[in-house]
Structure formats: structure tokens, C-alpha cells
Write a structure and sequence with these properties.
The chain has six helices and 15 strands. The protein folds into two domains: 169 residues, Clavaminate synthase-like (Double-stranded beta-helix, 4-Layer Sandwich); 78 residues, no CATH class. With 257 residues, it is α+β, with helices and mostly antiparallel strands. The radius of gyration is 18 Å and the shape is globular. 25% of the residues lie in helices and 29% in strands. A hairpin with a 2-residue loop joins strand 8 and strand 9. The strands form four sheets. Strands 1, 2, 3, 4, 6, 13 and 15 form a seven-stranded mixed β-sheet that branches. The protein has a four-stranded antiparallel β-sheet with strand order 5-14-7-12. It has a two-stranded antiparallel ribbon with strand order 8-9.
Length: 257
């Protein structure tokens, strides 16, 4: 699932892009390790984007009170520790549960992306688990739950978008996932809401799921990309002392090259 590409600190975006494109077809998560571009990492990775595909303007601003109006149209948005912004995972130090970014966005692009500006010493890794591992765990531990996840359409909504499909679907023999506990439409009805609770609890408590989680802790300048519908991802909690102790730039990318 996870491929780590290691580079020298002064590596060029062109060399990083070439290595990434070699790895991407067979990987589900790619960790770009080692580059140390000075200043704002967005400059380096904007050039990288130009070489591998194109980003979409799907950024959101969690400081806007109405969750249905948080879309800004920008490419980049902050995942930055900020205790002044309550009730937003991207600004908290809490662990973030496993999810997909495109759960509520139809035609979401094929790659999620995070680049690191700063990272605390303790905690803060991004967590990943393969969709195939999730299905294997469900078959072993909760086969009836798997059937419900494959057959019951779940509406997710946020920022004016809405997407309705099962949490697990199949494409050419491969399981695809679409899931975010906090974006399931609260008016979806009792059956969907019961399934939301059951799957959330399973992901938290399944020994097999927990054993298969892989962690990527980014250093400043590094990045990670993942196939959003082939893994669930989350975050470990971390020890934050001040604003921006953990600061990542996030984007959604269509890899085309």
C-alpha cells in the first residue's frame, strides 16, 4: 500500500515528480521523504502539480460558521493547529478518525495531498488503512455489517455538496471506500444512522483494522499523496504548545500524467 520515495534536501520538483509518476500506478499511498524546500512549501509543490496533473479548487474555511458555505474555491487550505478555532479537526490536536476526503463531493479527484510546513516532536502522524484490509477485517469479524455497507446507500453532505453511495463498493474486483462519520447526512433516517454508528465503532475497535494501520509522520518540506477511494486516512493526536505547531497544506489533485 505505502511507498516511500527518499530524496536529497535540495531535490528539484522535476525529479520528485518523475519518481512519483513511476510509483503511483501500483501504490495507494506515496510518501515524498527528504525534500527541504525553503520558505512556503506550496511553491515547490505547485510546480510538482504542474508536472503530474492539476489541483482542484476544493478548499474550505472552517472559521465560517455555516458548514454548508465553507467552500472558498481556492486550491490550498490549512490543516493548522489553532486553539482559537473550536470544533474543527483540521485545527485541533485531537486524533482524527478514519475517513475519505471526498465523501460528500461527487467526482472527487483521484489523489489527496498533504505537504508539511511544521510538525511537533510528539504525535501528529497521518494514518492510513487499505480498503482491502478493511474488507478482510469485516469478513472475518462482522460479515453482516459488510453486507450492509455494500448495499445501503449513505448520503454524505457538506459545503453545498451531496454524494450518495454505499460506504463500500466494487470496481474491477477492488473495494472502493467512501466514508466520513461527521459528513453523513443527519436526516438520512434511522437505518443509515445506525449503520454510521456501527461502522464507526468497528473502525475504532477492530483488532485487524488497527493492526493494519500504517503511519506517515511528515517532516517539514515532505508530502504524502493517497488514492482517496482506496484507503481510509486519519491522524494521531499530538502535543501542541502553540498555534502552527502542526501545520500542513492540503489540496485535492487529479493525477493525469
Amino acid at each position: 500500500m505505502l511507498v516511500t520515495l527518499t530524496f536529497q534536501p535540495e531535490e528539484s520538483p522535476e525529479n520528485v515528480a518523475a519518481a512519483f509518476l513511476d510509483a503511483w500506478p501500483s501504490a495507494k499511498v506515496v510518501h515524498i521523504k527528504g525534500p527541504r524546500p525553503g520558505g512556503d512549501v506550496r511553491e515547490f509543490y505547485t510546480r510538482f502539480f504542474e508536472l503530474v496533473g492539476y489541483p482542484l479548487g476544493l478548499a474550505e474555511d472552517a472559521t465560517i460558521g455555516d458548514r454548508n458555505a465553507q467552500r472558498t474555491g481556492e486550491v490550498w487550505f490549512e490543516v493548522r493547529y489553532d486553539p482559537a478555532v473550536p470544533d474543527a479537526y483540521r485545527h485541533s490536536a485531537n486524533a482524527q478518525p478514519l475517513h475519505t476526503d471526498g465523501s460528500y463531493i461527487p467526482n472527487f479527484p483521484n489523489a489527496g495531498f498533504l505537504a508539511c510546513q511544521s510538525m511537533p516532536d510528539e504525535g501528529g502522524a497521518t494514518t492510513f488503512v487499505d480498503s482491502e484490509s478493511i474488507v478482510a477485517a469485516l469478513r472475518s469479524e462482522a460479515p453482516e455489517l459488510l453486507k450492509r455497507l455494500e448495499t445501503l446507500p449513505i448520503p454524505h453532505s457538506r459545503s453545498g455538496d451531496r454524494r450518495v453511495e454505499p460506504a463500500i463498493r466494487w470496481y474491477r474486483g477492488e473495494p472502493l471506500v467512501n466514508w466520513n462519520y461527521y459528513c453523513v447526512d443527519p436526516s438520512a433516517g434511522a437505518e443509515v444512522l445506525a449503520l454510521r454508528e456501527a461502522f464507526s465503532e468497528f473502525l475504532r475497535s477492530s483488532p485487524d483494522v488497527q493492526a493494519d494501520i500504517e503511519r506517515v509522520k511528515l517532516a517539514p518540506g515532505e508530502a504524502v499523496l493517497w488514492k482517496d477511494d482506496r484507503v481510509l486516512h486519519g491522524r494521531d493526536s499530538f502535543d501542541a504548545k502553540k498555534k502552527s505547531d502542526r501545520f500542513l497544506w492540503k489540496a485535492a489533485l487529479q493525477v493525469t500524467a
